[in-house]
Design goal:
By secondary structure, this protein is α+β, with helices and mostly antiparallel strands. It is globular, with a radius of gyration of 25 Å. Helix content is about 40%, strand content about 10%. The strands form four sheets. Strands 1, 2, 3, 4, 5 and 12 form a six-stranded mixed beta sheet that branches.
């Protein structure tokens, strides 16, 4: 991949300087004659860009830009592998986009593989510039180590994503109140285990469950520990002293995981938490077995309507996070304002001005509506000034987001999400839960990541993957009862240091200070 250390040609620099300003507000046509731009677009739900997306076809009519699929690694579902293959080939398409492009783009952008976008945006993308002016923290988080930005990201909307959910009908059946702290939560889970809240005469209830086993580890937050500083599991976080650290190296984690292991041994956590997988929510709720989980507001709240006829009185609702042992109530998960997904302009692109104007199109009112809701008149209509999905979309048995993916909306291009898209298919119980969460001071400061120099990246790549693997292996072993986290802690901490944890934290904090002025 070192053959990508290329500089921008004088011709590209010259053409950038001589082109006219960005198009006027409301004028969406970018080129008079159709212009084809090739694209690599690899993401979990599609290993390639579908040229017949209805959204793509409508964007062609509006802008004159035609995207032509040239995705590498289309036979793999791993976006990282696809990107590595693309970089190794060296023949980059005009646009490189999709899942988790931030790290490779920020690494190889300063080496010449991708165009710096700062000046292009300032001169030719007024809508993107307006977004950055209003969200300077997002701009800072996107910068590579040289101060430039090399990609336009997928920008989520909204604050809260996951919430605590509980079977209110089970609480009512047992005469219990919603648990307000870690001790009350423990007592509630014990009651769910022992007092037959589903009323079938069998001790088959699963007090705490989750589709993601990582949510069982997140229970350590009830003892004041941390598992992540972003919307990604096992991520670093910024502590109260403004330093980047990792929760799995801290004493609070040791104490929290010891209690989680005890809860697991007592049958309060799903015995199959590490193996049941993504089907656990569907199975345990539809079988009237699951009591408490931590999951997404919109999708989880839908089970009340889905199971109303099958389970009389079924009522699975959000409740506030229980206070931890220090009396603090917080929600560790939140929506991150900027994703490592999006798209970039490669060095070989002969039309950088037109391309950045095309990127800017998706930040216009028309482009943003289309990237979120699909094509007007097809999947949505404007009603009283609000974009409203059609009855066919909202009443379908298929998830709204899945329907959007199929038409080319909500895909991992560089665009600004509109939370109104999700609010429409969020059940009333979840809406009330979101408002409840909004009314309380629950969110923690978010870690938006760092951009490494080449030397820093080498340190991170050398040490972090094996450290992370060791951390996760040990935590699962401890929860399952192999060893004792308290007794093993000193050896564990020493092993982390021997494996290079302090070196990793050193480059993380060095990069963080450079990027955010700490």
């Amino acid at each position: 991949m070192r053959n990508l250390k290329l500089s921008l040609t004088a011709a590209v620099l010259g053409s950038t300087a001589m082109m006219s300003p960005a198009f006027a507000d409301g004028h969406l046509t970018i080129v008079d004659e159709p212009l084809e731009l090739t694209i690599h677009m690899h993401w979990p739900r599609s290993q390639g860009y579908q040229e017949d997306y209805p959204v793509e076809l409508a964007a062609r009519e509006m802008t004159g830009i035609h995207l032509i699929d040239q995705t590498a690694g289309a036979n793999s579902t791993d976006s990282g592998e696809a990107m590595n293959l693309l970089l190794a080939q060296g023949n980059l398409p005009d646009i490189v986009g999709g899942h988790l492009i931030r790290q490779p783009v920020n690494e190889y952008g300063p080496q010449g593989a991708f165009l710096p976008l700062n000046d292009l945006i300032a001169e030719h993308a007024p809508n993107i510039q307006a977004y950055f002016d209003d969200h300077p923290e997002v701009f800072n988080s996107m910068q590579a180590y040289d101060g430039n930005i090399y990609y336009i990201p997928y920008l989520p909307d909204g604050l809260f994503g996951r919430a605590w959910f509980i079977r209110q009908d089970w609480l009512d059946a047992l005469g219990l109140e919603q648990p307000q702290n870690v001790d009350e939560l423990y007592e509630t889970l014990v009651a769910f285990r022992d007092q037959d809240p589903n009323g079938n005469g069998v001790a088959d209830e699963v007090p705490f469950f989750s589709r993601a086993w990582e949510e069982a580890i997140r229970l350590v937050t009830l003892w004041g520990a941390r598992t992540s500083g972003s919307d990604t599991y096992h991520d670093f976080y910024v502590n109260a002293d403004g330093m980047v650290t990792h929760g799995y190296s801290e004493v609070a984690y040791r104490d929290g995981l010891s209690n989680v292991a005890n809860w697991y041994a007592e049958g309060l956590i799903d015995a199959e938490i590490f193996t049941r997988g993504s089907s656990s929510r569907e199975f345990l709720l539809s079988e009237n077995l699951g009591g408490v989980t931590h999951d997404w507001f919109a999708s989880t709240s839908g089970y009340n309507a889905a199971l109303a006829d099958e389970i009389p009185g079924f009522n699975f609702i959000p409740f506030l996070p229980p206070e931890d042992i220090n009396g603090v109530r917080f929600e560790e998960h939140r929506r991150i304002p900027v994703k490592p997904d999006g798209w970039a302009i490669s060095f070989s692109n002969e039309h950088p001005i037109e391309t950045i104007r095309y990127f800017d199109f998706w930040f216009t009112e028309e482009g943003r509506l289309m990237s979120n809701f699909g094509v007007e008149g097809d999947t949505w209509n404007m009603i009283d000034g609000e974009p409203v999905f059609t009855d066919e979309v909202l009443d379908s048995d298929r998830a709204v987001n899945s329907q959007m993916y199929e038409v080319g909306a909500q895909i991992q291009r560089g665009y600004w999400q509109d939370y109104r898209y999700e609010w429409q298919w969020t059940a009333e119980a979840a809406r009330e839960g979101i408002e409840l969460y909004m009314a309380n001071d629950l969110l923690l400061p978010i870690f938006l990541g760092v951009a490494f120099t080449e030397d820093e990246q080498a340190v991170y790549d050398r040490y972090w993957p094996s450290i992370r693997t060791y951390m996760l292996e040990r935590q699962q072993a401890w929860v399952l009862g192999t060893g004792d986290v308290v007794e093993d802690w000193d050896d564990y901490a020493e092993t982390l240091d021997d494996m290079g944890l302090q070196d990793v934290l050193g480059v993380m904090n060095q990069a963080y200070a450079r990027q955010y002025g700490g």
